[in-house]
């Protein structure tokens, strides 16, 4: 159900490069998949963001609004990020928009590559 909605939404926005928000290694180990990339069906995407290894004592879902807003930068750029994003319109893809902090952190990093524009799409708010 979500795959079809996402595929439709992706046809309605203009972008050059699709960048899903990555998950922490600890999340990958406990869950076994990235829910955002799991919804993509045939769409090319690029992993240009990496999660900085941090001890996540409290998962995002357990934080209140203020705690989320105070979250430090969790991302760094992958080695190929500048080559892929420079001069491109980048679309960030995430599952849930709560405060927007995750997307702002991601956009800050992507902007360092010289991207032409950075926009976002989320599946739920």
Description of the structure:
The mean pLDDT is 88. With 125 residues, the protein is an alpha/beta fold. The chain has helices spanning 2-11, 25-31, 35-38, 65-69, 81-85, 101-111, and strands at 17-20, 49-51, 75-77, 89-96, 117-124. The protein is built from 6 helices and 5 strands. The strands form 2 sheets. Strands 1-4-5 form a 3-stranded parallel sheet, sandwiched between helices. A two-stranded antiparallel sheet has the order 2-3. It starts with a helix and ends with a strand. Helix content is 34%, strand content 21%. The longest helix has 11 residues, at 101-111.
Brief write-up:
By secondary structure, the chain is an alpha/beta fold. It is built from 6 helices and 5 strands; from the N terminus they run αβααβαβαβαβ.
Task: Write the topology of this structure.
Layout: H1 2-11, E1 17-20, H2 25-31, H3 35-38, E2 49-51, H4 65-69, E3 75-77, H5 81-85, E4 89-96, H6 101-111, E5 117-124
Parallel strand pairs: 1-4, 4-5
Antiparallel strand pairs: 2-3
Which terms would index this structure?
two-stranded antiparallel ribbon, 3-stranded parallel β-sheet, 125 residues, 6 helices, alpha/beta, 5 strands
């Amino acid at each position: 159900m979500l795959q079809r909605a996402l595929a439709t939404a992706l046809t309605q926005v203009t972008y050059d490069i699709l960048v899903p928000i990555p998950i922490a290694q600890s999340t990958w180990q406990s869950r076994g998949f990235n829910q955002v990339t799991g919804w993509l069906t045939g769409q090319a995407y690029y992993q240009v963001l990496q999660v900085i290894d941090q001890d996540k004592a409290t998962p995002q879902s357990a934080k209140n609004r203020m705690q989320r807003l105070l979250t430090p930068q969790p991302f760094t750029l992958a080695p190929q990020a500048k080559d892929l994003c420079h001069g491109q319109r980048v679309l960030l893809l995430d599952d849930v928009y709560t405060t927007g902090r995750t997307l702002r952190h991601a956009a800050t990093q992507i902007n360092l590559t010289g991207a032409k524009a950075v926009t976002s799409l989320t599946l739920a708010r």
